[in-house]
Design goal:
The chain is α+β, with helices and mostly antiparallel strands. The protein has one domain (1-211): Lipoprotein localisation LolA/LolB/LppX (outer membrane lipoprotein receptor (LolB), chain A). 16% of the residues lie in helices and 46% in strands. The longest helix has 35 residues, at 2-36.
């Protein structure tokens, strides 16, 4: 009888976990569908890096414009442009432009164009806490990397229940480093210039152009 109760208890936990996983998958699918429905997305964000053991506390702000797999990222004093074929990293401090080819189809490559849909492969997921943030209901989903070599222990993805937009992402490393990306502004279908994702060399006449490949 005792063994029967134990088996029943294990089965109930298993069913409950599967139900939670289905809820998490459904919410992630809704986020992906919402992202793909927009012609373009413009995001202002805050990025924080903390490691209490190393006494590291850093905060930075940035913004990114996304359209398909093309993007323009402004972060930590640098601008990165991906035109669909090549990446142009503009470093004003060094007056340098680094040009390289990037395989955007590489599942292991973490790029701005994947920042809103990265969770679709390589993770186990489950529902986590629901929080009220300034009147917004934020549902967290816990993501665990399936690759044992991944240096990240877990990721908490906060999703606005009403809009299905990502509110924040909290990443905890195996060595105690925690990074948090919080979306301050999420705009969609903005008027963009024809050259939004084009690198124009004559804008940087005195820069050293470094072709990496």
């Amino acid at each position: 009888m005792k063994k029967f109760i134990q088996i029943t208890f294990i089965l109930l936990i298993s069913f409950a976990t599967q139900a939670q996983d289905k809820k998490a998958k459904s919410l992630l699918d809704q986020v992906t569908a919402k992202v793909k429905s927009y012609n373009n997305i413009v995001i202002d964000f805050k990025y924080s890096l903390n490691n209490s053991k190393e006494n590291i506390n850093q905060d930075s702000k940035g913004n990114v414009t996304l359209k398909g797999n093309q993007y323009v990222l402004n972060f930590m004093g640098m601008t990165k442009i991906f035109d669909g074929k090549k990446t142009y990293t503009i470093v004003p401090e060094d007056e340098e432009v680094n040009i390289s080819s990037v395989n955007e189809k590489d599942d292991n490559a973490v790029t701005p164009s994947k920042m809103l849909t990265f969770f679709n492969s390589g993770y186990k997921y489950s529902m986590d806490i629901l929080q009220n943030v300034r009147g917004r209901k934020i549902q967290y989903i816990k993501l665990i990397p399936t690759n044992t070599k991944d240096q990240r222990k877990e990721i908490l993805l906060g999703i606005d229940v009403q809009t299905k937009h990502i509110y924040n992402l909290i990443e905890t490393g195996k060595k105690g480093t925690k990074t948090t990306l919080t979306v301050n502004s999420f705009k969609t279908n903005q008027p963009l210039s024809k050259n939004q994702f084009t690198f124009v060399a004559n804008k940087y006449p005195n820069y050293y152009i470094n072709k990496l490949d």
